[in-house]
Amino acid sequence: MSTVADSSRPARPAIAWIGLGIMGSPMSENLIKAGYDVTGYTLEQAKLDRLAAAGGRAAGSIAEAVRDADVVITMVPASPQVEAIAYGPDGILENARPGSLLIDMSSITPQTSIDLAAAAKDKGIRVLDAPVSGGEAGAVEAVLSIMVGGEQADFDQAKPVFEALGKTIVLCGPHGSGQTVKAANQLIVAVNIQACAEAVVFLEKSGVDLQAALDVLNGGLAGSTVLTRKKDNFLDRDFKPGFRIDLHHKDMGIVTDAARSVGAALPVGAVVAQLVASLRAQGDGGLDHSALLRAVERLSGAQV
Predict the structure, then answer these.
(1) Phi, psi dihedrals of residue 207, rounded to the nearest 5°
(2) For residue 92, which phi and psi values (nearest 5 degrees)?
(3) Active site residue 182
(4) Tell me: the pLDDT tens digits for 38-84?
(5) Is 3 exposed, middle or buried, given 0-12, 13-18 or 19+ CB atoms closer than 10 A?
(6) Which residues of 4-29 are buried (b: 16+ CB within 10 A; e: fewer)?
(7) Domains of the chain with CATH codes
(8) Mean pLDDT of all residues in the chain?
(9) How far is residue 248's CA from residue 266's CA, in Å, rounded to a whole number?
(10) pTM of the complete model
(11) Could you say which of 182, 230, 231, 250 is catalytic?
């Protein structure tokens, strides 16, 4: 490939990444691998060191991270954290350049995204809400599903960035729409995991070879990405967090509240939300959401 062709390619935007957790670290590293200049900030020094080792730059504050960025990406746990990093004198809106694009990839309430977009517009900053699905494995493999809310022109500008992070990338509607679709995603995932967990306990108590049973089930109509991703968790009782129960509890609160506000009934979702809450109350909030299996085992008489 000639250097002339390389030099003619448009310059990639400088990216600030705020939030380097289970999802944020591998996602930011995938942008670095794709050739982006990434400056990151998070609260834990070890995660900043990891970013630097991957070829990024560690910043000492939000303000330092965002001041020269064309695109600011945030990936934090919930609405309060998004508000904490976005607002105030030390926040993104006060320190990012007018004309920059803020992409919030956290999973938060749709209203928080709508409010953030309105506040950012007053500062000349454009916003997309772009939550993701796929868990830690999807983040590492850059095969996330990305559901986006915002303006078409901003989505078009962000598309190459998204393509370094995921495979299914869809503009779902105006601000907040990405979060609404993510809430529906989390509803489906939780109910699916619960159904799989109940099937696992039923199969084991029936004396069936669990590995064989899950293999054949996953090849038919009962098969799913959830079962593919979580099968080994069930088989090995390995609940190292890829997506924590604490976070799914937060998401089930988002979807049940949002559904109530629009008049949508979620009878099964409401039951699963309570099962997630009970698992968290029993001290399992830090485990992967596949640990819903533990709740079914307890209900079935096992000492877990």
Answers:
(1) 80, 15
(2) -65, -45
(3) yes
(4) 999 999 999 999 999 999 999 999 999 999 999 999 999 999 999 99
(5) exposed
(6) eeeeeeeebbebbbbbbbbbbbbbbb
(7) 15-174 (3.40.50.720), 181-300 (1.10.1040.10)
(8) 95
(9) 16
(10) 0.91
(11) 182
